Amino acid sequence: MSVRSMGPIRGYVLATAMASATTVVVALIDHLIHVPNISLLYVPPILLTAIYFGTGPSLWGAGLSVVEYDFFLVAPAFTLTVNRIEDVLALVVFCSVAVIASQLAVSVRSRAEAAQWRARESRTLYELGQALMFARDIGEVLTRISREVTRTFDAVSCAIYVPKDGESLEVAAGSGSYDPEDREANAAAAYAYSKGSEVSMPGRRSRLSTRSGPAEYVPLRAADQVVGVMGLKLKPSSEGMSAAEHGLLNSVAAQAAVSIARAQTEEQRRRLEILEEEDRLKSALISSVSHDLRTPLASIKASATSLLLADKAWPPEEQRELLTAIDSESDRLNRLVGNLLDMSRIESGALHPRLDWYDVNEVVDAALAQAKPVLAGRIVTTRLSEGPSLVLLDLTLVAQAVANLVDNAARYTDTHVPLEVEARLAGGRLCLAVVDHGSGVPFDQRDRIFKRFSRTSRNGESGPGVGLGLAICRGIAEAHEGTIRLLPTPGGGSTFVLDLPQPSTVAGAGNHRGQPA
Amino acid sequence: MSEGPPARILLVDDEQQIRRLLSVALARDGYRVEAVASGEEAISHLVATPVDLVLLDLGLPDTDGVDLCREIRAWTSVPVIVVTVRSEDRQKVAALDCGADDYVTKPFSMAELLARIRANLRRTASNAEDGLIRAGALEVDLVRRLVSVAGRHVHLTPTEWDLLRVLASNAGRVVTHRQLLREVRGAAYEEETAILRVHMVALRQKLALTRDQPGYIVTEPGVGYRLLSA
């Protein structure tokens, strides 16, 4: 309950009513029995008035009480004669009571209000902190702040302006019915931003009967820098903000400023990291190009130049061996180039799966067909689901991922070690597993095996290939919103599982292609 | 290939080295090869001298390969095999849907290229044949609508038969999903690949000799299917 909200006139009316009612009561009692200090009955209503309505109404009540008492109850009745010392005393006492009580009440009330405000402020800031803790990025942080501000101040809208690319301000987040194109608001925000000072706009009635409430534009200051502006539009009925509300708004603005500044630092750090990562990738690429691509080239060159030697004829068998080397080494070179291209597509985010329905068996068949060159003389068992089981994926990509896994398993195990390829469709997931019973991946290498240019070492020797195969598998899995895992095979060896989410219903009629062909 | 005059092949590729190599290699197999370096030359050559087959590199610098396919197909039914690199997957399918008959992916082996050329030349000659198509132990009699694997008669549903018929009459050549669906279910169903997969699985199982063998129908990832030719 607040004095302001009760309205001043109401206080006077109630004070009058209470004084008059007391007069009636006093008159009744006085009529029945004679009590010497009956006028004391006027004190409680004056106290009440003082507590609830403040000094003015209570003074009015005190005066009225004395006048009424004198007029109606002191003989001679119906005359206003203040000739008795008691009446003067009563007037003085009543007025003192009114003033002292009302002043006391006011100070108690304002202290209570201040405490309430502090509680509200800390609650708002606490809730904001809670909300921000779970925000993932700066956009979400600002959206949450603006939502919280709108709620706390019961505002029409709240928009947070942040300079875009260090240039002009733009609404980065907002809540309520804000308009990013609102020229007046943008101008006010720009002014607050450039001057670094608060801009308050009073509410007004416009010609077209739409009313706009007051608005506040608070610069968001972190350290010495203005990092943005928070614009708050209040309801048309609002009278503007109190000092306490301003204080709260400033605290929230400080919070927002810190968040923005932190996000900007984070962004810079991430950019730097990406640059460093790119740098690492580039140098790894250069070393891999110079080494891994030249190795097959060297074989091809050696074989071809051997065959070209004019001074002696090659026996057919050796000639064939050299030609086979050229053939298989050029395949290897092609695969390496393909891997590098795929990796760069994954890196640049240009890997967009073209989803379509396929049978699980087709996926495995296509993968094994691709991996055929490295599978010569090896036993590969496939465990597939019976009957048609349709899956939604990009066959080219997934088959390549599985082929990479098979290829990997074949390269890192001895030729006599059997391989297994397993496909299981259950619970809205497609699990494609490539199982080997080789020596397994050393424990310390398990985490980094899916990273680019990481090759596990076997017997201190680095393995064949550029070390892109598994990174590509992971890229393909992620492009399908799936995962890839490395598990130990029971009894020794590695099991790589490609886990791809699947829609719960298979397309019947209708167009269910991911993208038009 | 011994009977009749040698088949003429128009080779369109901007790489001089490839033109020279392929000319030598294809000539050794008894083809007459004429090589040009651009789409423009290809069109003017085709207008002047009819050929039996066009080997078209999709990565020509002067022309869009897909447009060239469409242009060629607009006035001649000469078989067109497009040559692509792997990263041109979309273009490959677009070219096939625009009238190209088949594709090979660079780098290819000569055996693969020769098989494609043979299969696509055979199609033009196959109209005169008896409608009997063989692939390994598989025998498809297009006239009497009979299918057998290793002498064992195979019973097919009407849709499965339609699929096999289309693949068999294009034996050795790739048939895109779109083409298969159009032939089997009508143009309105060109996008319904899920239906195609279900029937294809059933068909493959019926034609398979053993459980683990992929059989005679090869999946061309992202493109379509191909019935292996004998």
What does this structure look like?
The complex is a heterodimer of chains A (517) and B (230). Chain A has helices at residues 3-6, 8-32, 43-53, 55-73, 85-133, 138-152, 183-195, 243-308, 316-347, 360-371, 395-412, 469-479; strands at residues 157-163, 169-176, 199-201, 204-205, 211-212, 215-222, 225-233, 356-359, 380-383, 390-393, 419-426, 429-436, 457-458, 461-462, 483-488, 494-501. By secondary structure, chain A is of the alpha+beta class. Mean pLDDT of chain A is 81; it is low at 1-5, 457-464 and 508-517. Chain A starts with a helix and ends in a 16-residue tail after the last strand. In chain A, strands 2-1-7-6-3 form a five-stranded antiparallel beta sheet, with helices on both faces. Chain A has a five-stranded mixed beta sheet with strand order 9-11-12-16-15, covered by helices on one side. The longest helix of chain A is centred in the middle third of the chain and has 66 residues, at 243-308. Chain A has four domains: 3-125, no CATH class; 136-268, Beta-Lactamase; 286-347, Helix Hairpins (Orthogonal Bundle), CATH 1.10.287.130; 356-501, Histidine kinase-like ATPase, C-terminal domain (Heat Shock Protein 90). Chain B is an alpha/beta fold and 230 residues long. Chain B folds into two domains: 8-127, Rossmann fold (3-Layer(aba) Sandwich), CATH 3.40.50; 129-227, Arc Repressor Mutant, subunit A (Orthogonal Bundle), CATH 1.10.10. Chain B contains eight helices and twelve strands. Chain B has helices spanning 16-28, 39-48, 65-75, 89-97, 110-125, 158-169, 177-185, 193-207, and strands at residues 8-12, 32-36, 53-57, 80-85, 102-106, 132-135, 138-141, 146-149, 152-153, 174-176, 217-220, 224-227. Chain B has a five-stranded parallel beta sheet, sandwiched between helices. In chain B, strands 6-7-8-9 form a four-stranded antiparallel beta sheet, with helices on one face. The longest helix of chain B has 16 residues, at 110-125. The radius of gyration of chain B is 18 Å and the shape is globular. The model of chain B has no long low-confidence stretch (mean pLDDT 85). At the A-B interface, helix 9, strand 8, helix 10 and helix 11 of A face helix 4 and helix 8 of B.
